[in-house]
Design brief:
Keywords: Glycoprotein, Glycosidase, Hydrolase, Signal. Pfam families: Alpha_L_fucos (PF01120), Fucosidase_C (PF16757). It catalyses: a neolactoside IV(2)-alpha-Fuc-nLc4Cer(d18:1(4E)) + H2O = a neolactoside nLc4Cer(d18:1(4E)) + L-fucose; a neolactoside IV(2)-alpha-Fuc-nLc4Cer(d18:0) + H2O = a neolactoside nLc4Cer(d18:0) + L-fucose; an alpha-L-fucoside + H2O = L-fucose + an alcohol. The protein is of the alpha/beta class and 479 residues long. It folds into two domains: 362 residues, TIM Barrel (Alpha-Beta Barrel); 86 residues, Golgi alpha-mannosidase II (Immunoglobulin-like). 30% of the residues lie in helices and 15% in strands. The longest helix is centred in the N-terminal third of the chain and has 19 residues.
């Protein structure tokens, strides 16, 4: 690292440490210290809880072989899984190295404006792009990448910058970046690992400088960390970096972070919790969380050998979204573009389908809160959200009732004047209010006209809007 680069790396750290001891006078702004106790006290910015749904994009050199998984390099030369070894021996010449895939990652059809439009059509409100996966290849011209980046190799383009510009200028999506802390085969990391992480050459000269570079250059509103390589947060100097991010960075007030900042941090420290890939607990958590999952059941990156049966259906995606939001989480749904820069048509179709569903039913998702009950006690496949300020409860049901009536055990509606005068039940997408009857404090039965089903715009899940329910519209309050 040059002296100029070293100064650029150390300045934010030293500034944060100084401010922690000597806060600026005349202001009430909280200064977060580089400790988990202090950092974990930072409230997650409200915008993140409001948006509910985002798109993850796994894209990199692994999109070239596009076989099996985005972990291709590791499975081929790290774990030496026979199917990966055989794939390479049958299709590539002797001596072929993973680095030789780099020039083939050309992104010649990458149109960031087209991507931005497709992502916006999905109804998502934020996007997270893999700026660097565990292979170490950066999708921007990082000064710390040793030329293993998209500006010097392959596309010869700043892919992060181009997508950030398109997203911010053509949509209202929040732009975020994924960054892998470790790299499978980086010699500096392997040396530190062999030293039981008592040396920090890789963290201090490669990984952390990249993080500062990403924030200062692209101002991401989500910083999605991953891949600790079994190294503790002290090796990564995570608390000092996050203190700078929250105190002094250009996105100090708006940035949202996750919980993957070192071995033992997941589901315990950081911003929102991810806990594990495809995490969907099915119940409330007291901390904001996110379900990051894939349309392709077996991979985060693009696979040429994927089967249609290995893709989630739109019904399965809607179910994931509804269950996640009802339990207080956000859904981050992943797609894997091709090496030449296209969003595969199956992913494009799923994005547009979920967008169609949200265009009709989005009021039951966006800016909602968990209700006192997450799912129904009498009928399976019914999940609840609410908007307390509007005295509104939403019952989202995933199976159309065969007898044209839906029994709800949780809304404790009582008969009488309220039934005929105040409380209203609407089927979103259908213009007329619905008839209902009380089950004497044990729930309610909602009746559907047989003509209404054919009038509904989408068939993948439906929403009852219950207005002025004559019980307190309680909500779960996250800590």
């Amino acid at each position: 690292m040059s002296s100029a680069q070293l100064r650029g790396f150390l300045l934010p750290v030293l500034t944060t440490l100084f401010l922690a001891q000597f806060p600026l006078p005349g202001g009430s702004r909280t200064i977060y210290q580089p400790t988990w106790e202090s950092l974990d006290s930072r409230p997650i910015p409200d915008w993140f809880d409001d948006v509910k749904f985002g798109i993850f994009i796994h894209w990199g050199v692994f999109s070239v072989p596009s076989y099996g998984s985005e972990w291709f390099w590791w499975y081929w030369q790290g774990s030496k899984i026979p199917s990966y070894v055989n794939f390479m021996s049958k299709n590539y010449p002797p001596g072929f190295q993973y680095e030789d895939f780099g020039p083939q990652f050309k992104a010649e059809f990458f149109d960031p404006l087209s991507w931005a439009n497709t992502l916006a059509e999905s109804g998502a409100k934020y996007v997270v792009l893999t700026s660097k996966h565990h292979e170490g290849f950066t999708l921007w011209g990082s000064k710390f990448s040793w030329n293993w980046n998209s500006v010097d190799v392959g596309p010869k383009r700043d892919l992060v910058g181009e997508l950030a510009f398109a997203i911010r200028n053509k949509t209202d999506l929040h732009f975020g970046l994924y960054h892998s802390l470790f790299e499978w085969f980086n010699p500096l990391f392997l040396s530190d690992k062999n030293n039981s992480f008592e040396t920090r050459d890789f963290a201090s000269t490669k990984s952390l400088p990249e993080l500062y570079e990403l924030v200062l250059k692209y101002h991401p509103e989500i910083l999605w960390s991953d891949g600790d390589g079994n190294a503790p947060d002290t090796y990564w100097n995570s608390t000092s970096f996050l203190a700078w991010l929250y105190n002094e960075s250009p996105v100090q007030d708006t940035v949202v972070t996750n919980d993957r900042w070192g071995n033992g941090c997941m589901c315990k420290h950081g911003g929102f919790y991810t806990c594990s890939d495809r995490y969907n607990p099915g119940h409330l958590l007291k901390h904001k969380w996110e379900n990051c999952m894939t349309i392709d059941k077996n991979s985060w990156g693009y696979r040429r050998n994927a089967l249609i049966s290995e893709m989630l259906t739109i019904e399965e995606i809607v179910q994931q979204l509804v269950e996640t939001v009802s339990c207080g989480g956000n859904l981050l749904m992943n797609i894997g573009p091709t090496a030449d820069g296209r969003i595969p048509v199956i992913f494009e179709e799923r994005l547009k389908q979920v967008g169609q569903w949200l265009k009709i039913n989005g009021e039951a998702i966006y800016s909602t809160k968990p209700w006192r009950a997450q799912n129904d006690s009498m009928t399976a496949g019914v999940w609840y959200t609410c908007k307390p300020e509007e005295q509104t409860v939403y019952a989202i049901f995933l199976n159309w009732p065969s007898n044209w009536e839906l029994v709800l055990g949780e809304p404790k509606a009582t008969a009488g004047k309220t039934e005929f005068y105040l409380l209203q039940v609407q089927l979103i997408g259908y213009e007329n209010t619905l008839k209902w009857k009380s089950l004497e404090g044990k729930g309610m039965v909602v009746n559907f006209p047989k003509s209404c089903y054919s009038q509904l715009p989408v068939p993948w899940g439906w929403v009852l809007k219950i207005v002025k329910l004559n019980e307190e519209v309680e909500q779960y309050r996250k800590s």
